Amino acid sequence: MCTKKQIILWIFIFFTGIVSGQSRKIINIPDIAGYQTLKCDFHIHTIFSDGTVWPTVRIEEAWEEGLDAIAISDHIEYRPHSKDVVADHNRSFEIAEPLAQQKNVVLIRAAEITRSMPPGHLNALFIRNANLLERDDVMDAIKEAREQGSFIFWNHPGWKAQQPDSTVWWEEHTELLDNGLLHGIEVYNSNEYYPEALEWANEKSLTMLGNSDVHDPIGMSYDLSTGRRPMTLVFAKSKTTGGIKEALFSQRTAVYFDETVIGKSEILEPLFFASLAFKDNPLKIQNGASRRIEITNKSDIDYELELVQPGVGFDAPENVTLKAGQITPLTITGNSDEISQVKTLKVYYGIKNMLVNPEENLIVTFSFRNL
Questions:
Q1: 349 Cβ neighbours under 8 A, 6+ residues apart
Q2: Is the pTM of this model over 0.90?
Q3: Torsion angle, alpha carbons of 244, 246, 248, 251, to 10
Q4: Distance between CA 310 and CA 301 in Å, rounded?
Q5: Closest CA to 212 of 355, 51, 357
């Protein structure tokens, strides 16, 4: 017989599993040469740990928002609903998987190893059996994840509950890194950006990730009418579990949040130019004449440009905003006799909302022939 408390809980679970499922948004972030750009969230919780929704709700949310892949990473050690939701650590994945297949959302089997600092909280992706991660010693749990072929990353390294004074890289993290037990790090979690994590990712060759760490229904955590959850952009050879795993281990990711993209320049530059289409007025610029280049931004990202190096013999705007889904003119004006001798007009801009380091923006070059 079920208790009254259990009956109320199951009624709650039933109704939170009923979601609209009416339409799917399209997130316009282009593919780059050789790779698909997959929109992913690898840090999500359900009622099987400390979340408040049924696993199928996470699939519906991801589908409606336009995500390609998610990982339900319920805690191994922290399960406050365990008296009412009795199941093993694999159950949330098993419940969600059939709907994920139906909705064509790649669902990655995962779990969160939840320990005090150091080493803190770690997500293990692509595991085979979450139950085997339930170990007394944290190193045994992490080694088991590695034995299962897992990709392991450090969650919210600057979380004030565990690092209240400063964001510190501990000796234990060096040990994990040196022994192949740490592969990535969250640069962004929920609504927090960790610049130290971005520096460590570059210095220590860690894969950059950005995730929601959502516990409540996604609409309670983010205003989906005006924005979207943070996500990891994965540049994969295929939209499959294997394709995503290969890309993560190869560090082909970027972090996307609040109109900002963080990643390596070799990823961000092709992503930026794949977002744009140019319509050029191919006229040679003489002194005092101008040339208008129309730039169409095909992506959902507003790119903020700032001139970092003036051209030789010509002027270009100091600040340009390439609005998402709009055409923006770029006007170049000759200002000296030197312009007639210039065969290629090169304009250098920093993209203020594309970061490769905490204090360093992506620098791009626009090149146009001066006929």
A1: 305, 306, 307, 308, 320, 363, 364, 366
A2: yes
A3: -140
A4: 25
A5: 51
Cβ burial, residue 314 (10 Å; 0-12/13-18/19+): buried
CA distance 143 to 122: 12
Give me the helices (H) in the chain, please: 4-16, 55-65, 91-103, 138-147, 171-178, 195-204, 218-221, 241-249, 265-274
Q: How many angstroms separate the most distant Cα atoms in the chain?
A: 91
| pLDDT one-digit tens code per residue, 25-73 | 999 999 999 999 999 999 999 999 999 999 999 999 999 999 999 999 9
Closest to 255 (Cα-Cα) out of 200, 185, 322 = 185
290 near 305, Cβ under 8 Å? no
d(CA 89, CA 75): 8
What pairing do the DSSP bridges indicate for beta strands 36-44 and 69-72?
parallel
Write down the number of H helices and E strands in the chain. 9, 19
Place of tokens 């993560």: 248
> CA gyration radius for the chain?
24
